[in-house]
Design goal:
By secondary structure, this protein is an all-alpha fold. It has helices at about 1-25, 30-45, 50-60, 65-80, 90-100. The relative contact order is 0.15.
Length: about 100
Amino acid sequence: MASESLHTVRVRIGERIAEIEARVRTLKPVDIRAKMDAIRVMAADHGLCALEGLADYGAHHAMLPGHRQATRCALEHMETALHSECPADRQTILAAMAQRLH
């Protein structure tokens, strides 16, 4: 049952990610931040460390110059982070994003 619950959470989060992906061009930075923060909270509540870190990054960077590029990059890594089972993946994904954006 626990894995079923985690599966359900991943499906719900996946739906939220898909919504952001579909609307990213029209969303205001404050809306992107709120949606990313909601994903971060759900991820934190269910021990999805890599996704929590990535969503935190996305929420923070949504309010900074260059937010569209940072948001697109974060979205590209969301699927990997969503299915990560290893807490160390958090740093790996964030490092990959930093390398790509700078």
